[in-house]
Amino acid sequence: MAQIDDIAAETGFSGVVRIDRAGEVEFEQAYGLANRAYGVPNTIGTRFGIASGGKGFTALAILSLVDEGKLALDTTARELLGDDLPLIAADVTVEHLLTHTSGIGDYLDEEGDWEANDYVIGAVHELTTTESFLPLLDGIPTKFKAGERFGYCNGGFVVLALLAERASGRGYHDLVRDRVLTQAGMSRTDFLRSDELPGDAAVGYLEGSDRTNVFHLPVVPNGDGGIYTTAGDMTKFWHALFAGEHAQTVTKPRHDVPEEQLRYGLGFWLHETNDTIILAGYDAGASFKSTHDPHTGKTITVLSNTSPGAWPIARALT
């Protein structure tokens, strides 16, 4: 599409755009470089970090444990946390965490003025497991009472990953691989280490520089996002979601989020007035938006290895 090419040229877009409808690809194009130092171009098969887009995968892993009776939406976090993270209130439930209504303090608070490049996590190389996040999550005061309002919370989804591990006895990453990725046939999606990216993965770059995001994000993605995927795998994901049993549950609107002109379900954003479902992510060196209309089967996915990259094209297409 000429419109997409024009926006890509005007903005210096680096990433991949794909549009398909009911299994037929209408547009698919790669732009820019996956690795600037070595001049490696992005391709339609390049894997990109999708930041908070991974929250939807966490939600589906949690729901699979609910199906098995190992968790329930009204299970309190405290039942599995024991003495860990004592500032999380006793009445915070799995559903509160899934809907960003838990009120717990956040290690990465996006509610104020926040720029992705400004945030640097200390000792990112140590964040290789879910349990390793405990010191990062600890000691942050509660922001509001559980259920009082919507307050976007990254830390809440790391807590969900921790609850999933303790309820199932399995690691979070393997839970997502087995219960979400494999089920959807997403063979090109995984939790890649940022310090040893394979050649088919895009390096994330900070806005306005050629510095990478390696010091800005956990070295291994976790429950709040960061997984790497491709545009093609996202199409597989949406088809699998709506062919499965959890689509109605995750797409039921739980909260209006007027400041975003959206609604929220369980781990997924929802269009303000229609049934389009959305996954989106924004972080240092990563921006991503994928939308799916269950009525027309139309999927639009924009992935970029810069923080602002995806938004001009995503706005034009959606």
CATH superfamily: DD-peptidase/beta-lactamase superfamily
Compute the number of structural domains: 1
Query: Largest sheet, described in full?
Result: 8 strands, antiparallel
Radius of gyration: 18 Å
Q: Termini distance?
A: 14 Å
Number of beta-strand segments: 12
The ordered string of helix (H) and strand (E) elements is HEEEEEHHHHHHEHHEEEEEEH
SSE-based structural type? alpha+beta
By CATH, the topology is Beta-lactamase
Which CATH architecture?
A: 3-Layer(aba) Sandwich
Q: What is the mean predicted local confidence, pLDDT? A: 94
Low-confidence stretches: none
Widest sheet, order of strands: 2-1-12-11-10-9-8-7
Total DSSP helices = 10
Report the CATH C-level class: Alpha Beta
Considering DSSP H and I runs of 4 or more, what fraction of the residues is helical?
25-40%
Strand content: 15-25%
Please tell me what the overall shape is: globular
Please provide a written account of the structure.
With 318 residues, the chain is α+β, with helices and mostly antiparallel strands. The protein has one domain (2-317): 3-Layer(aba) Sandwich (Beta-lactamase). It contains 10 helices and 12 strands. The strands form 3 sheets. An 8-stranded antiparallel beta sheet has the order 2-1-12-11-10-9-8-7, sandwiched between helices. A hairpin with a 5-residue loop joins strand 9 (269-271) and strand 10. The longest helix is centred in the middle third of the chain and has 15 residues, at 154-168. It is globular and about 55 Å long. 47% of the residues are buried.
